[in-house]
Amino acid sequence: MDWHVEPGAQLRGRLRVPGDKSISHRALMLNAIADGVANIDGLLEGDDCLATRRALESMGVPIERSGEGRYRVTGVGMRGLAAPDGPLDLGNSGTSMRLMSGILAAQSFPTTLTGDRSLSRRPMARVIRPLSAMGANIDGKANRPPLHIEPAERILPVRYGLPVASAQVKSAVLLAALYADGETQVSEPATTRDHTERLLGAMGADLQVDRERGLITLRGPAKLSAVDIDVPGDFSSAVFFVVAALIAAAGELVIERVGVNPTRTGALEVLRLMGADISVDNERDIGGEPVADLTVRRSNLRGADVPASLVPLAIDEFPVLFVAAANAAGTTRFVDIGELRHKESDRIAVMIDGLAALGVDCSATDSTATITGGGYGGAAVDAQDDHRIAMSFAVAALTAAAPLDVRGTETVATSFPGFTDRAGAAGWSIREAAA
Ligand code: S3P
Predict the structure, then answer these.
(1) How far apart are CA 11 and CA 272, in angstroms?
(2) Over the stretch 106-122, which tens digit does the pLDDT of each residue have?
(3) Nearest C-alpha to atom 13 of ligand 1 is from which residue?
(4) Contact criterion met (CB below 8 Å) for 305 and 278
(5) Which one of 27, 138, 278, 314 is most buried, counting C-beta atoms within 10 A?
(6) Ligand 1, atom 16: nearest CA belongs to which residue?
């Protein structure tokens, strides 16, 4: 599916975005192996989380839907999963594959994990290595999906220093460690999203987090108690509306009930460095996660040097931050962003190619990007089936000198079902283009 976006729209009003993807995956997976029944509200019904749901159901976990975003998961306990009939197809979802590997490495039945074309290209050595060190029997051809997992004699505790800052890898190790007899220690080179730690703590796991040293200690074997979860709006989805309003608001745009866990909101800091006027109001705690309303006013953005320390805290937001940079006066430099090359697409290459096609002055190296703001035109750009890139170019269209067509937008449903409807309600019309 292609989009056609006319420039010049001005955004206004109030909106909510769908539930957080990372929290939704964890709410399903961890409650599936807990004891008890959990009611989940506001679950993201995007394709990625639905892939997690299907995989868990195919291993015997009862998951009932009782309304939009409302689910009831009946935990089967740590040892209650059953062998699925066939391979588990995890679609586009790296989070499903990497987190699920941690749980499946400890099961007494074999599993095969597959995914779509994009997921099949993504690196899995990062989970194969630590899980193998824990005694798991897991491999993939050339360290890519499909992954084959055979039952392990037992899962051992491990001390593991993550070579790259990755919440998915950290979580895979912690989930396997739930089944190990003894103390597992994971250290991260930089803080990454901590939803797994928060939820495991709330479910009764014996877990300590030393933020200062970047050290997480978990003592297994664990027994988890089901917890009800009210999923906050996804900051990573809200950010498309944040940048859209910064470059094209009429008055202000309010995004309500957004998750503002500090391990996720690095993009707010980056945008503020660029001169953005964003207020975070009505901050409250919902089920162990901070939530707030964001008010965004149109701002004259300026270029900035983005500190490397913010990269893991804004890891999914770079495509749209590149668009903010293309709308800023002066040059913005992004460093240490090489991980973006391993996301749903090579996000550095796809964004820089697309921005260059619009006439933006930009360049990249393996792990950096440099973008100079200034006017740009319209063109047809290819999102390469990457949801966040498709939405980023829809944002870019707001200030283009001519209409913009975005190709390959189907995957937007993986993380943000209803994106174009919400955009329309805020005054930003995104039409389906004639193929
Ligand atoms: C996620 C972690 C991030 C992020 C992804 C979701 C998670 O990946 O890009 O969208 O839910 O743990 P990495 O931790 O591999 O960087």
Answers:
(1) 20
(2) 999 999 999 999 999 99
(3) 166
(4) no
(5) 27
(6) 166
Tell me how far the alpha carbon of residue 170 lies from the centroid of ligand 1, in angstroms: 10
The atom number, within ligand 1, closest to the CA of 339 reads: 16
Which of 95, 196, 216 to mutate to test ligand 1, by most ligand atoms within 8 A of the CB atom?
95
SS3 381: strand
% of the chain exceeding 70 in pLDDT: 100
From the number of C-beta atoms within 10 Å of its C-beta (0-12, 13-18, 19+), residue 141 rates as: exposed
The span from the CA of 114 to the CA of 122, in Å, is: 11
Among 234, 233, 241, 250, which Cα is nearest to 271's? Answer: 241
The torsion angles phi and psi of 396, rounded to 5 degrees, stand at -60, -35
State in Å: Cα 402 to ligand 1 middle: 34
Residue among 9, 6, 1 at smallest CA distance from 241: 9
- The pLDDT tens digits of the residues spanning 142-181 come to 999 999 999 999 999 999 999 999 999 999 999 999 999 9
d(CA 136, CA 234) in angstroms, rounded, equals: 33
Q: How far is CA 10 from CA 275, 381, 393, in A?
A: 19, 22, 16
- CA distances (Å), 382 to each of 159, 186, 320, 353, in order? 42, 38, 15, 9
- Residue 434: pLDDT above 80? no
| Contact predicate 227/183, CB 8 Å | no
Beta-carbon neighbour count of residue 36 at 10 Å? 15
Distance from C-alpha of 348 to C-alpha of 307, rounded to nearest angstrom: 17
Please state, in angstroms and rounded to a whole number, the distance separating the CA atoms of residues 51 and 55: 6
Question: How much is the pTM?
Answer: 0.98
Q: 433 CA distance to ligand 1 centroid (A)?
A: 31
Closest C-alpha to ligand 1, atom 15: 166
Helix or strand or coil: residue 108?
coil
Query: How far is the centre of ligand 1, averaged over its atoms, from the C-alpha of 305 (Å)?
Result: 24
Please tell me the distance from the alpha carbon of residue 240 to that of residue 409, in angstroms, as a whole number.
Answer: 15
Specify the DSSP element, H or E, that contains 215.
strand 215-220
